[in-house]
């Protein structure tokens, strides 16, 4: 098990919601030979995060995030710096919320201390493949910023 | 008892993209005047996305429809493609697919019972407070959830959104060593499954006592409790309908309160899911699963929708028992590489499998280059919506004199018992900085 794990989340069929998955393929190329870093495309399998992070030293999440910022902006934060605004009815297992999942992991004593989230503000979350140009044009910049986090 | 005889119970579930799943109840003079389950759009937009795409890309695309049912959607698509192009698969592929599919069944059922139902039965709002009040229960759930994840990863190559499944077979086979490891993981999980079963059993009297005669629909197989092969069966008739004719069963129709299509066959609505499969196939359960059903007094003909959760526990035991049998059988013959080369062919086909939450149909047509010209996906949640509405109409008058919070909880629990697929396709963060 490699000590550092980059978990990329999202859905490539929902336009900018798929930014994490797009960056997973880019980062996988850059980090293919890394002895310390693994890149994981976890799609929308949100609760599986609990098992993916257990036993690692550092976790870097890459996900689409509505933060009230300008579309395309990437923001680095830790779970403690934000509060979730997601309304949860618990109707179904399909209401994923990363922050909630991390809280569960923390209470179980399984959550690594070193967690960083790179959130990217979407321009459009709607049905369709491909990112909007606002995000597409920033891909290399996002990749370089995330790689610097690993230095 | 509700002091006010005129009141509304409103539960809003609003997401930015997928629509809504709202509960509306209006009471007047202590009587139910109106009760409604308002539901979101089914994933019709995914059908448009696969049109024009190569048959080789379809299962990858549809696996992203849902993070919980990604193996199921992949398999329905692959079976539909194979049906359209006349592709036969080997016995080895067949067994490995069924095995992979079992990993998803156990993962989804455990998540549903553990994360959504257990908090209701233990009087908590979510699983998080249970870590303090019932730490052993939560740890058991997490270990079983991990088993489901590892199970899918062993065969499908990833915890979710599988990458090894393809029309005709597999891109990569698991090694026999990995299969042996999986076998050992499953065997080691049996005590946890028994513990969870005991916990749910000890709380089963908290499941509401509500029964409504219902038509249940599921796949039925030749000689085992099937999630993968077979024809469509109903508890209302002895007729077995080939999956090619699924539209004759689903009879999708439009209702004013929903942008999603609803379904009915012999009655105004029908139910699919674990309880439906149990009611259709209970006599085919393996010994330990049958014993579990008996322990809960779960018998064929049960029509209490809240008992869907008990049927899920029984099915977890079933897939563990049959899964171990499949692994033994695969190891006995040894895994053989089976290179797959599929030549595209024009045609139309149907793929049908049981998703954890009910029967799922995919229909596709392809041109001679293997490009998709038509797609129709009929999901279990869409088929259950009408039944949730009919349950509401029967349940609400029975509970209308109770406290409004209790009415709200019972209606919410009813929706939860079906585990509908709502807002399944996005998981973006929505945060404010503190």
Number of strands of chain A: 6
Which structural class best describes the helix and strand composition of chain A? alpha/beta
Separation of termini of chain B?
A: 41 Å
Distance between the termini of chain A: 19 Å
Mean pLDDT of chain A: 92
**Order of strands in the sheet with most strands of chain B:** 1-2-3
What is the CA-based Rg of chain B, rounded? 22 Å
The number of helical segments of chain A is 5
Unreliable segments of 5+ consecutive residues of chain B:
14-19
Helix content of chain A: 25-40%
Which sheet architecture does the biggest sheet of chain A show?
5 strands, mixed
Give, in spatial order, the strands making up the sheet with the most strands of chain A: 2-1-3-6-4
Percent range for helical residues of chain B?
Answer: 40-55%
Q: Mean pLDDT of chain B, nearest integer?
A: 91
Low-confidence stretches of chain A: none
Taking the sheet with the most strands of chain B, its summary is: 3 strands, antiparallel
Say what oligomer this is: heterodimer
Element order, helices and strands of chain B? Answer: EEEHHHHHHEEHEEEHHHHEEEHHE
Give an account of the 3D structure:
The complex is a heterodimer of chains A (151) and B (434). In chain A, helix 1 links the parallel strand 1 and strand 2 (37-43). Helix content of chain A is 28%, strand content 24%. Chain A has 151 residues and is of the alpha/beta class. The two termini of chain A are 19 Å apart. In chain B, strand 2 and strand 3 form a beta hairpin. Chain B has a three-stranded antiparallel β-sheet with strand order 1-2-3, with helices on one face. In chain B, strands 6-7-8 form a three-stranded antiparallel β-sheet. Chain B is an alpha+beta fold. Chain B is 45% helix and 15% strand. Classes of the chains: A alpha/beta (151), B alpha+beta (434). Chains A and B meet through strand 2, helix 2, strand 3, strand 5 and helix 3 of A and helix 1, helix 4, helix 6, helix 13 and strand 12 of B. Strand 3 of chain A pairs parallel with strand 12 of chain B, so a sheet runs across the interface.
């Amino acid at each position: 098990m490699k000590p550092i794990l980059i978990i990329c989340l999202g859905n490539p069929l929902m336009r900018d919601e798929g930014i994490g998955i797009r960056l997973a393929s880019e980062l996988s190329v850059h980090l293919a030979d890394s002895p310390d870093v693994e890149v994981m495309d976890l799609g929308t399998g949100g609760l599986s995060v609990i098992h993916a992070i257990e036993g690692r030293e550092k976790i870097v999440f890459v996900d689409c995030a509505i933060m009230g910022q300008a579309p395309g902006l990437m923001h680095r934060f830790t779970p403690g710096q934000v509060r979730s605004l997601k309304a949860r009815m618990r109707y179904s297992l399909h209401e994923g919320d990363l922050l909630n999942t991390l809280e569960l992991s923390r209470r179980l004593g399984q959550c690594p201390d070193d967690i960083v989230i790179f959130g990217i503000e979407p321009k459009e979350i709607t049905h369709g493949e491909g990112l909007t140009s606002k995000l597409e044009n920033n891909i290399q910049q996002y990749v370089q910023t995330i790689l610097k986090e690993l230095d | 008892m509700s002091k006010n005889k005129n009141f509304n119970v409103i539960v809003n579930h609003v997401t930015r993209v997928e629509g809504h799943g709202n509960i509306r109840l209006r009471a007047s003079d202590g009587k139910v005047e109106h009760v409604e389950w308002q539901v979101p759009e089914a994933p019709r937009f995914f059908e448009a996305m696969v049109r024009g795409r190569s048959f080789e890309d379809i299962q990858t695309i549809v696996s992203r429809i849902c993070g919980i049912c990604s193996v199921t959607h992949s398999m329905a698509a692959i079976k539909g493609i194979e049906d359209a192009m006349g592709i036969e698969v080997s016995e080895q592929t067949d067994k490995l697919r069924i095995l992979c599919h079992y990993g998803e069944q156990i993962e989804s059922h455990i998540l549903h019972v553990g994360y959504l139902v257990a908090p209701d039965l233990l009087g908590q709002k979510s699983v998080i407070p249970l870590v303090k009040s019932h730490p052993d229960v939560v740890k058991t759930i997490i270990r079983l959830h991990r088993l489901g994840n590892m199970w899918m990863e062993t065969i499908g190559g990833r915890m979710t959104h599988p990458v090894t499944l393809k029309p005709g077979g597999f891109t990569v086979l698991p090694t026999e060593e990995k299969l042996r490891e999986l076998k050992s993981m499953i065997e080691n999980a049996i005590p946890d499954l028994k513990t969870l079963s005991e916990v749910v059993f000890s709380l089963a009297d908290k499941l509401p006592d509500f029964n409504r005669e219902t038509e249940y629909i599921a796949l039925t197989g030749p000689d085992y409790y099937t999630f993968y092969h077979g024809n469509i069966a109903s508890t209302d008739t002895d007729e077995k309908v080939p999956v090619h004719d699924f539209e004759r069963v689903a009879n999708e129709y439009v209702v004013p309160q929903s942008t999603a299509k609803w379904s009915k066959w012999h009655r105004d609505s029908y139910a699919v899911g674990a309880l439906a499969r149990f009611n259709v196939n209970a006599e085919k359960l393996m010994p330990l699963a049958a014993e579990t059903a008996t322990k809960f007094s779960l018998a064929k003909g049960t029509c209490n929708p809240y008992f869907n959760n008990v049927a899920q526990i029984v099915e977890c035991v079933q897939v563990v028992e049959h899964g171990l049998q499949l692994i033994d059988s695969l190891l006995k013959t040894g895994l053989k590489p089976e290179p797959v080369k599929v030549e595209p062919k024009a045609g139309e086909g149907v793929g049908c499998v049981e998703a954890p939450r009910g029967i799922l149909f995919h229909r596709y047509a392809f041109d001679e280059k293997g490009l998709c010209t038509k797609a129709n996906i009929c999901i279990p949640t869409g088929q259950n919506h009408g039944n949730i509405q009919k349950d509401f109409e029967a349940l609400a008058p029975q509970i209308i004199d109770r406290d409004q919070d209790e009415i709200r909880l019972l209606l919410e629990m009813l929706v939860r018992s079906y585990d509908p697929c709502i807002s399944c396709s996005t998981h973006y963060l929505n945060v404010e900085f503190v």
